From TrEMBL:
SUPFAM superfamilies, sorted: Phosphoglycerate mutase-like
Designated name of the protein: phosphoglycerate mutase (2,3-diphosphoglycerate-dependent)
Keywords, alphabetical: Glycolysis, Isomerase
Pfam family, one: His_Phos_1
GO MF annotations, alphabetized: phosphoglycerate mutase activity
Residues annotated as catalytic: 80, 184
Family statement: Belongs to the phosphoglycerate mutase family. BPG-dependent PGAM subfamily.
Length: 326
């Protein structure tokens, strides 16, 4: 077993404090929102065994006396649209850059694909490109009266000043929670460098290891393993309890933080996750039911689901596994 090494938060990031998403949800939640400090372990093997421990029973996080909204919930994952540094072929990581015109269009198109899927709660990274993607996507939702509102927990004053006093308005709002734990993998000294020039300087093989290896981090940066430690822990502690309660959740984040979460949801191995490719602005849909996550594909329209595939080889493997388990 390979233990994921804890990493100190980047100085520009901060742990989330006790925000009150329940103020906006149609049915209040008493589930505490917190950042788990303990480590978890991932199997770094090529076998098909699950990477993580089985999904925690909702009964461990939600009081039994609480009545669930629904027996199942939708989970939508969206990688942000093209950013200005994507366009320039620069390593971006945790540098906060906005979307391009193409990225804006991708976010809007993603919103059209999920326009008929209910959304009760939105989680994004603390980076503007993910937040823009979530907000733009929601402009296309069928519930035009529902407005996404970013919750500010930077200080007590920020919480007070952004408070919504109208109960009716709160009912028509979707809380948006920004968490640095969902940020893109921190690329260290590669951030801001041109990808082609970096390959010429350090060698294609070395740069490939930095970018695609599970364990090897770039200089003064995070490996995918380190990124998975924070992203999956946050998902387990803050997002999964909401799904267990029946709240439909949208996550707008980044290639590596979402790959980490998908690794957990689909029980991928460390080898499989390194070959995982996520397109910008293309939503992926899961259903959480009976304490299990079931893939429902990438919605290609308001009423139908398309083919769920990262790469051709991985898609064939997942299809074969699904047929075996059916």
């Amino acid at each position: 077993m390979a233990t994921v090494v804890s990493q100190q938060p980047i100085t520009s990031q901060r742990p989330s404090s006790n925000f009150k998403a329940s103020h906006f949800l149609k049915e209040p939640l008493n589930v505490p929102i917190k950042l788990r400090q303990k480590q978890f372990k991932i199997q770094a093997t090529a076998s098909q065994a699950p990477l993580l421990d089985p999904v925690l029973s909702p009964s461990k996080t939600i009081p039994q006396s609480y009545k669930k909204k629904s027996n199942e919930a939708s989970l939508i994952l969206i990688r942000h649209g093209e950013s200005l540094w994507n366009e320039k072929n620069l390593f971006t990581g945790c540098v906060d850059v906005p979307l391009t015109e193409k990225g804006v269009a991708e976010a809007i198109q993603a919103g059209k694909r999920i326009s008929n899927i209910p959304v009760d709660l939105i989680f994004t990274s603390s980076l503007i490109r993910a937040q823009m993607t979530a907000m733009l996507a929601m402009t296309q939702h069928r519930c035009k009266k529902v407005v996404p509102i970013i919750l500010h927990d930077e200080s007590e004053k920020a919480q007070t000043w952004s408070h919504v006093f109208s109960e009716e308005t709160r009912k028509q709002s979707i809380p948006v929670i920004a968490a640095w734990q969902l940020n893109e993998r921190m690329y260290g000294e590669l951030q801001g460098l041109n990808k082609e020039e970096t390959a010429e300087r350090y060698g294609t093989q070395q740069v490939h290891e930095w970018r695609r290896s599970y364990h090897i981090p770039p200089p003064k940066g995070e490996s995918l393993e380190m990124c998975a430690e924070r992203a999956v822990a946050y998902f387990e502690d803050n997002i999964q309890p909401e799904l267990a309660f029946g709240n439909n959740v949208l996550i707008a984040a980044h290639g590596n933080s979402l790959r980490s979460i998908i690794m957990y949801l689909d029980k991928l191995t460390s080898q499989e996750v390194t070959s995982l490719e996520l397109s910008t602005g293309l939503p992926l849909l899961y259903i959480f039911k009976d304490r299990k996550f079931m893939r429902r594909g990438s919605p290609v329209g308001p009423t139908e689901a398309g083919v769920y595939a990262y790469t051709k080889r991985l898609a064939q493997y997942r299809q074969k596994l699904d047929e075996t388990l059916a």
